[in-house]
Amino acid sequence: MPECWDGEHDIDTPYGMLHVVIRGAPKGNRPAILTYHDVGMNHKLCFNTFFNFEDMQEITKHFVVCHVDAPGQQSNASQFPAGYQFPTMDQLAAMLPSVIQHFGFKSVVGIGVGAGSYVLAKFALIFPDLVEGLVLINIDPCGKGWIDWAATKLSGLTSSLPDTVLSHICSQEELMNNSEVVQSLRHQIGANVNQTNLQLFWNMYNSRRDLEMNRPGTVANAKTIVCPVMLVVGDNSPAEEGVVECNSKLDPTQTTFLKMADSGGLPQITQPGKLTEAFKYFLQGMGYIAYLVDRRLSAGTVPSASMTRLARSRTASMTSASSVDGPRPRVCTQTNSSDSVGQVTQNISQTMEVSC
After folding, report:
1. Tens digit of pLDDT for each residue in 224-272?
2. Where is the composition biased (Polar residues) (predicted)?
3. Nearest-10 crossing angle of helices 195-206, 115-126
4. Helices (H), the chain
């Protein structure tokens, strides 16, 4: 494997081609950060603000970042021919191992938004050994009922496709306020994403099935995501109900529920600082990035405990046993070890709801 795959790539998968953008180079045995965008967007529209945020770059220098665009959703994508069968949501998830194999990644930490969160959750259910952790923003694990399906169809008849998709991404309050962010996103959806290809993705997302998972102990042979998960939703997001439902289906010892105050359906765009801080603690909880440079304080390396609010709930993650450069046991498997790192991962993997 070359030392750096930095740049754009088209990856052949069993269900078609995927456009992938790599930023940086693999760092030892650490996982890649793999992103998957929401419907109506691509990796640029969905994640540029977040990953260009200064503090986020302090994190990404420790990892290779892999941005995945859903088929035909990247900027300047060719229009699919008439009759093209867009992959199902399950097939979109099944395309990701080809990406991981192509670049030789051992595992990934996934960051998904909306439809992308659904794809990554499905991926983790099918291929648990490839996923070390998930940040799922605005996930809805439920399939659409007939009433929802009919409402979506009616909306499509009375609104433009960008406006229909915006109603999925943004709250009614955000749409009514018509902020600069919403105006810009409406324009970008219309200008940067092929509308025929977008319609196919939108139709497939709206025909998704329930994610087949249940909290352990609630039903016989319950299946759920086994890696650490951070669920994120804005307190004014149209996805709040879905995220709460997802939280009820996950292992509470492996799940963090983060509800962001003063945030709507675009926390990665409108609140990149808060999301970056939460992501730092999430990685620390997995045993990565025990210490980071804080440019706001004196020069040198300082503990990340200076990031106050979540730190008080996750003081165990400050252990030096979780050094970013050392070997790290996978925390997505249960262990009875009395090893100090094992104790740390058990202590920090507690469900909590934080408004920040």
Report:
1. 999 999 999 999 999 999 999 999 999 999 999 999 988 899 999 999 9
2. 332-344
3. 60
4. 43-52, 54-60, 89-94, 96-103, 115-126, 146-158, 161-169, 172-177, 180-192, 195-206, 240-248, 267-270, 272-285, 308-311, 340-348
**Is the Cα dihedral 282, 285, 289, 293 positive or negative?**
positive
279: left (phi over 0), alpha (psi -120 to 50) or beta: alpha
Which amino acid, residue 117? Answer: S
Nearest in space to 56 (alpha carbons), one of 14, 12, 23:
23
Q: How far apart are CA 101 and CA 118, in angstroms?
A: 21
Q: Measured in whole angstroms, how far is the alpha carbon of residue 225 from the centre of its chain?
A: 14
Q: In Å, how far are 47, 51, 251, 289 from 54, measured between CA atoms?
A: 13, 8, 33, 16
Token pair 């100090």 is at which residue?
A: 340
For residue 234, what is the DSSP state? E
pLDDT in tens, 202-234: 999 999 999 989 998 888 888 999 999 999 999
Task: Tell me the CA distances in angstroms from 112 to 118, 133, 185, 254, 308, one per residue in order.
Answer: 8, 11, 18, 17, 25
CA distance 250 to 228: 10
CA–CA gap between residue 95 and residue 102 (Å, rounded): 11
- What secondary structure letter does DSSP report for 156? H
Q: How far apart are CA 123 and CA 228, in angstroms?
A: 14
- Are the C-beta atoms of 233 and 247 separated by less than 8 Å? no
User: Among 173, 175, 150, 148, which Cα is nearest to 163's?
Assistant: 175
Least confident among 17-31, 48-62, 304-318? 304-318
Over residues 295-341, the pLDDT tens digits come to: 444 344 333 333 333 333 332 333 233 333 444 444 433 333 333 33
